[in-house]
């Protein structure tokens, strides 16, 4: 495949990843409509099998709505440790072809294979090999998009789902972008899409018909991006190991927390998960934040920044608990708690002396 600027980009997207893992591991679930997530009144669908999607069940849909649309829907609690393990397997396969891997989530990633470790000239054949190896090693299917930039590669991976792949060549790129609804464009969320629609912009062709000056006037700094992308142009590079800005963990509880002891136990659990990541990666941070969402969905946060990076679990737990105690007495029941660590660094812990905490 000849590239417009010499780049060969692959976007790999696992097919209904969480649900497919559950169906792989439990043969009784195969061929049945399945949702990964909680089935309670406040539950949310994290992933849906293709059998469930036929009924309109989608991720982020309230579980009550999903069950109404598909009465035979089976709910399975998520097993994130299992999904993370499978994701590591898949990334090890990617690494056999290129070091330029940009993960977007556990189940998708960009790969730049312009120059690759197997000296293969065809990105199409690389994508076929990767998908076959994923199936062989994990028993799961993946879809792939191949193009000369990230935007079009991601669009292409949706084109032949599930278990397929699609190529958008330089000769196809501009026409492909023109036919897309504006909501499909990178960087266009619901609010921006609604604004574009009010301006009479519904497709890539509508965007392309506007001048750069018009787009800058209405969309500011994003104007040049929309001008380029409506022409099938995207200069973003595949960036491996993108630096994290924060590490966080949060949980929505099936029953509201009403007692301080339960709240503090929840905070300690979230802090433990954050610290587990710190231990695995060597990352530390200086700002601890506790997130609280009440039963009425009102949300608040409490943060504290220490002088030097937090270097042990006990300190992270102590700061987190002190922060949540600042809301006592509890104004109302709590449905969600989260703990995060930001102002990150990778300094060696043994070289850092932990200072006494002053949370007054």
UniProtKB/TrEMBL annotation:
Residues 9-189 form the UmuC domain. It is found in: Cytoplasm. The active site is at 108. InterPro entries: DNA/RNA_pol_sf (IPR043502), DNA_pol_Y-fam_lit_finger_sf (IPR036775), DNA_pol_Y-fam_little_finger (IPR017961), DNA_polymerase-Y (IPR050116), DNApol_IV (IPR022880), IMS_HHH_1 (IPR053848), Rev_trsase/Diguanyl_cyclase (IPR043128), UmuC (IPR001126). One of its GO terms (molecular function) is DNA-directed DNA polymerase activity. Binds 2 magnesium ions per subunit. Its EC number is 2.7.7.7. Coiled coil: none annotated. One of its GO terms (cellular component) is cytosol. Keywords: Cytoplasm, DNA damage, DNA repair, DNA replication, DNA-binding, DNA-directed DNA polymerase, Magnesium, Metal-binding, Mutator protein, Nucleotidyltransferase, Transferase. Pfam families: IMS, IMS_C, IMS_HHH_1. Mg(2+) binds at residues 13, 107. It comes from the Bacteria. The record marks 18 as: Substrate discrimination. Its cofactor is Mg(2+). It is an enzyme of class 2 (transferase). GO terms for biological process: DNA repair; DNA-templated DNA replication; error-prone translesion synthesis; SOS response. Its main location: cytoplasm. It catalyses: DNA(n) + a 2'-deoxyribonucleoside 5'-triphosphate = DNA(n+1) + diphosphate. Belongs to the DNA polymerase type-Y family. Poorly processive, error-prone DNA polymerase involved in untargeted mutagenesis. Copies undamaged DNA at stalled replication forks, which arise in vivo from mismatched or misaligned primer ends. These misaligned primers can be extended by PolIV. Exhibits no 3'-5' exonuclease (proofreading) activity. May be involved in translesional synthesis, in conjunction with the beta clamp from PolIII. Monomer. This is DNA polymerase IV. It comes from Oleomonas cavernae.
